[in-house]
Amino acid sequence: MSHGTHPLYRIEIAETQQSFTAQPGESVLDAALRTGVSLAHECTFGGCGTCRVRVVEGSVSYEEFPMGLTEDEDAAGFALACQARPTADLVISTARGLEPAVPARRASAIVQAVTPLAADVLHLRMALPDDTPLAFAPGQYMKILLDDGSHRSFSMASAPRGNEVDFHVRRIAGGRFTAGQLPRLQPGDRLDVEVPLGNFALRKEDYRPLLMVATGTGIAPIKSMLESLMDDPDCPPVWLYWGMRSASDLYLDNEIRAWGDRLYDFQYVPVLSRADADWQGRRGYVHEAVAADLGDLSEHAIYLCGSPNMIHDAKQLFTGLGAQVPFLYADGFTFQHPTM
Length: 340
Description:
Elements: E1 9-13, E2 19-22, H1 28-34, E3 52-57, E4 60-61, H2 71-75, E5 78-80, E6 85-86, E7 90-93, E8 105-118, E9 121-127, E10 141-145, E11 151-155, E12 164-170, H3 176-181, E13 190-197, E14 210-215, H4 219-229, E15 238-244, H5 253-259, E16 266-272, E17 282-283, H6 286-294, E18 301-306, H7 308-319, E19 328-332
Parallel strand pairs: 1-7, 14-15, 14-18, 15-16, 16-17, 18-19
Antiparallel strand pairs: 1-2, 3-5, 3-7, 4-6, 8-9, 8-13, 9-12, 10-11, 10-13
């Protein structure tokens, strides 16, 4: 059969009734973008999980099963739009529990300060130019738009507070923005941004104990979520596991230890993969520490943020311990630009 006689696949978004068509072999995301339909996405190669949707009707296949999805998620009907190719007409759901959804806007943000948090992490503080409070769901991110048409994405590291927002930016060796432009920024400098973006966000409506697992600067959106729960009488119990290589990398350690004063029931466990002989705490991989401590994860809402490898391994391990796929949220920090 010639390629031209293959059918087009009709794809409908359940929440909006928007529909578009995909050509044979075309991914759901590519088809949506080609036809002007907006679907949340970031890395576009199946690593970050931002484009996760649920297949309500129809079926999809993959040329290569994506790293940002597990077999359990696939079996539960979830798909990654950037890699999923329709094999039938589809109805997909993009509902992620973000209410109210705040539309993204572009603005010229004003740099307030750039200060070091660790040897390779900078604290960037910015303000939007008007007095309109920046509304976002804790866990979402901002795009910084660069002169060459590319962008860099960074999660908000603070809870919504007026028009100011914080970021934790890891410097990438040789990175044009993170090692070049960012350290030279001065208060008053402006950056073009788009905000807020992303599906990774706190779902207070889950009413479940919270398990938060981060590596590296993946702690930033977790910090935003937990700050939003401080002094909240409905705050659920929280377990926070933060994986780093060495003790000197734990740039928020003292601050995190004080969070327990303002959260209802807070347990914090730093885990080091390359600890020296002086380290008295937990060693190894952060997700394995969780499994050893908690065992049954069937009652938790679980938030994973950081390296795609950790997220992939944690999802597989945790679903084996009863974690419920609909209550397992992830944001993989993928450095898709070699010149970050």
